[in-house]
Write a structure and sequence with these properties.
Gyrase A, domain 2, 40% helix, 117 residues, alpha+beta, 4 helices, four-stranded antiparallel sheet, elongated, 2 domains
Length: 117
């Protein structure tokens, strides 16, 4: 009886790990949903080519939401602004970045029927 329990432990551990990964994947997917409200989670995973290294946006900039319709991205190195803009434009999220030379502002578009689908 004891040997049977010992054999099932690796299976249970493996199954728990797979379930945790699945739950985390669903959480990430839910964070990226467009709700018409600004969310840091919507952009923090955007990939940026920073000095020939693909880096998540949250690794090169501070991201905040000063209000419910605006995302502000302030890079730690202003030379990364154009790379961040490019990453946003090719992300497929349909967001438009406004670069003022110091920060990038994204105004969340109005949630229309087409954007909901």
């Amino acid at each position: 009886m004891v040997q049977t329990i010992d054999h099932t432990k690796p299976i249970l551990t493996d199954t728990e790990n797979k379930m945790q990964k699945s739950v985390e994947a669903v959480r990430q997917e839910m964070h990226s949903l467009h709700t018409g409200r600004a969310s840091v989670a919507l952009v923090e995973g955007i990939k940026v080519d920073y000095y020939n290294t693909i880096t998540p946006l949250k690794g090169v900039a501070s991201i905040s939401t000063p209000d419910s319709k605006t995302i502000v991205i302030q890079p730690w190195d202003t030379s990364a602004l154009s790379a961040i803009e490019k990453g946003i434009s090719i992300s497929g999220l349909g967001l438009v970045a406004n670069n003022d030379g110091r920060v990038i502002r994204i105004q969340m578009p109005v949630l229309t029927q087409e954007r909901r689908v």
